[in-house]
Amino acid sequence: MEFIRDYKKTAIIYDGKEYSYSEMIKNAKGVVKNLDIKKEDKVVIFMENRPELLYTFLGTWDKNGTCVCLDGSLNGEELSYYLKDCTPKYIFTSENNYEASKKALDISEINCTIINVDKCKWDYNGDEETLKSPEREDVALMLYTSGTTGNPKGVMLTFDNILVNIEGLDKYKMYKDTDRVLALLPMHHIFPLLGSGIVPLSKGATIAFVKELSSQAMVDALNNYKITMMIGVPRLWEMLHKKIMEKINSSKATKKIFKLSERVNNISFSRIIFKKVHKGFGGHIRFFVSGGSKLDPQISRDFLTLGIDICEGYGLTETAPMISFTPIGAVVPGSAGKILPGVTVKIGDDGEILVKGRNVMKGYYNRPEATAEVIDNEGWFHTGDLGHLSGEYLFVTGRKKEMIVLSNGKNINPIEIEQWISSRTNLVEEIAVLEYEGLLTAVIYPNFQKIKEEGVTNIGETLKWGVVDKYNNGAPNYRKILDIRIVQEELPKTKIGKIRRFMIPDMLKNKKVEDVEVKEPDFEEYGIVRDYLKEAKGKEITPSAHLELDLGLDSLDMVEFVAFVEATFGVRLSENDLATNSTVEKIAEYIKEHSSGIELTNTNWSEILQQDERKFLPKSNTIGKIIRTLFKIPFNTYIKIKKSGIENIPKNKAVIFVGNHQSFLDGFIFNEAVPSDIQNKSLYLAKIAHFKKGLMKTLGENSNLVLVDINKKLSETLQCLATGIRDGKNIVIFPEGVRSRDGKMREFKKTFAIVAKETNTEVVPFGIRGAYELYPANAKRPRGGEVEIKFFEPIKTENLSYDEIINKSRSVIEKWVEKGNF
């Protein structure tokens, strides 16, 4: 049957050149005219995205052959598997892939002819102006599954499987002959092969290939070729969404306009308001298409607010590919669209999506047992995906084999957690949630560019408490993330961006490293830095080791390292210097470039803390006194404090108070429990994140708070604490760093121990009980009840080590708080 005709216009644009429909038809016929291709003879197409891929595809169909499209990045050994499996008659390949094709043939030892499209003649002189398709029941296309479990299987698709997809799209007039479609994704996947290749050409549209897959190439193509539609995977829309929303959120005015457009909910209004955004996409976009995996509903909503439909579809290679899709103007965020006409869907007892209809494959090539595993006796194809129907719309909720089933029988959909976290930060490039070593774990590949731009030097703490903890605060206990693993390489993915979760555990395991000789830099500064770090962390040091992620330098380690570098090399490292030069070799090169000479020395905390620093000391305690007065009523009625050990508080000398951190109430409980003269001369260490703007900033500056940023100025903060002590001020510290998430105590950080020992200041431990029960971290407001606070005898620090100070302080508190003794 006739499939493509000469539309008397441009069919394909590639590398700045335009190819007409007439040229395309002649080239498709010319490349196969002398080939012996009969009905369902298999022809492998093995090349990168380019016009010749479509010429060879359409030429093979014109002769009623079966196209087998393979990943153009396969090497010879990988390719040989597919050749042995499908035994093609011909291989169409490019100069880039010719050697791999030859090697694959040698390995597979099959009888097959290689045709290099860069060297063959395109000389068809006939006057035919159409290209035919295979017959409806013929196997027109064979594509391979990704092989995530076992070897890849060849999916046999008849032309009727494909035709029902085309007819469904025609019903809603998704493609027009005036469309110009940008082809980004590799065409060995059915989604881009049909959606941005074969189907647009069958409707008289124009396809524009990008020669290289980059952001700039995409932007250039959108503007130069007046693109009207583009097909992409969720990862693409996530990337574009982040960039757009960053610009919108950077201005109060644009944020208000965006909120207004959201309320108006009119696509014509939005297109006028956000004309600049549309112009950034070339100014001609009718709609975008998303497929391959589920799109975050918030991204879909925000694009609608911008006046752009992202029409989401759902399906598999085995369903050619569509089961459902979203017509233009009918986007329902979170939904995979309406069921394709001619297709029936039902939801199994276990929530699995089952499909029957003309779109379901003929079967897996030469694998009847595997076919029977997915197509039951009644003809229902089992997708392996979970979902539900709501009216005309299908909602896909997860993949059966990707669902995490806990020991208590509860199911967790990792994709929902990943999307929640990704949508609320620009510091995460990729995230995968899985059960690893018995714990629900988030594996994070950070956005190192944003990490660098924002001067984050404590990546682990920032991601744990600034990103993941925000999710945990609102999640039920069984869905809380209990471990974070930060990786320095992208997560394993398929070519269209799906994360290969089954490969992540191997990625995280400490694999045995082959004995490879690492060439170390031979300049003196590197050797000194390497030896210092080796002694400090007790680890072997390599030039490429990341100071935090590989060597485990925390914020205090960084302070010591900065002090060591300044004393040894005369180089003052800033937070930006550390963020920019994050590996051992890079920081050593930076030191070498800026060094004023070398004088070997050791880090001296006493010397560091002698420096008088007042930058972060509060202006007054005016607001602190007001708050204390205001809180007297609630602390005498709603929340009652039972206090003891007040006699253990020294009155005539500065001390460091150290307590466990149960809730947001803890600072107020301490404030209310101690006598007013103690409260007035006590400085509280607090996170700057809570006191950055407006009223909170004013409160922080006038409430005896010393504000600390885990990524910046920690050494100066410690100097401020030491200065405060010399001024006769007490210091109040909760050395766990964060409020308890489960009521139990965490390890104490050593900040207070360093300051205490080096200033010879006594430590007064105090314990708080009951505050977690009244105000846990995920609660919106506290409950009424009783809390207890107890002050213990001071600990003299002069003859103790840092660890001894920490252990003595923590053990006395823990014994009372968690064991109920004393």
From TrEMBL:
It holds the Pfam family AMP-binding_C_3. GO terms for molecular function: acyltransferase activity; long-chain fatty acid-CoA ligase activity. PROSITE patterns: AMP_BINDING, CARRIER. SMART domains: PlsC. Residues 519-595 form the Carrier domain. This is Long-chain acyl-CoA synthetase. Signal peptide: none annotated. PANTHER family: AMP-DEPENDENT SYNTHETASE_LIGASE DOMAIN-CONTAINING PROTEIN, LONG-CHAIN-FATTY-ACID--COA LIGASE. GO terms for cellular component: membrane. InterPro entries: ACP-like_sf, AMP-binding_CS, AMP-dep_synth/lig_dom, ANL_N_sf, Plipid/glycerol_acylTrfase, PP-bd_ACP.
